[in-house]
Design brief:
The chain has 147 residues and is an alpha+beta fold. Helices cover 29% and strands 40% of the residues.
């Protein structure tokens, strides 16, 4: 009996540890309608839908834009605001872009993905300085999904 109780406690503790670890691997839009998976060890700012790498040189933001109705409308807005932006991929339901900007800290790349959903337009914007993060950036924004 005592052995079964100890085993049950170990299983319950393991379950809650797994749930807690999993919670650190997702960043959600402030309204909870969009989410993306992030690497372990990142610092999540749940109230603002952001997560930073441990070294603070990469950040991802997830949002739900309920005002923009189409990918074409979003593309027009983005190309006006960022004329140097490159369109990586575009369909009626999805847009991927790449933008490089010069900052006081050096050149920063931004990979952006928008995904049309029933609740609006889920967006993920991953900014990074270190080119070794390019694959991680694509992977993270690639996990973007809506409810």
């Amino acid at each position: 009996m005592r052995k079964n109780l100890v085993l049950a406690l170990v299983l319950v503790c393991g379950f809650f540890s797994a749930v807690a670890a999993g919670a650190q691997r997702v960043v959600m839009s402030p309204d909870g309608n969009c989410k993306a998976s992030i690497p372990g060890g990142w610092i999540v700012d749940a109230a603002n839908g952001r997560a930073n790498s441990a070294d603070m040189r990469s950040i991802v933001s997830v949002d739900n834009d309920t005002n923009t109705k189409t990918i074409a409308e979003l593309k027009a807005t983005l190309t006006y605001a960022f004329p140097e932006m490159k369109i990586l991929s575009e369909t009626a339901t999805e847009l991927w872009t790449l933008n490089t900007v010069e900052t006081p800290q050096g050149m920063r790349d931004n990979i952006y993905r928008a995904l049309k959903t029933n609740g609006g337009m889920c967006t993920a914007d991953f900014s990074y300085y270190d080119q070794s993060m390019a694959g991680t950036a694509k992977n993270v924004v690639g996990t973007l999904k809506g409810k």
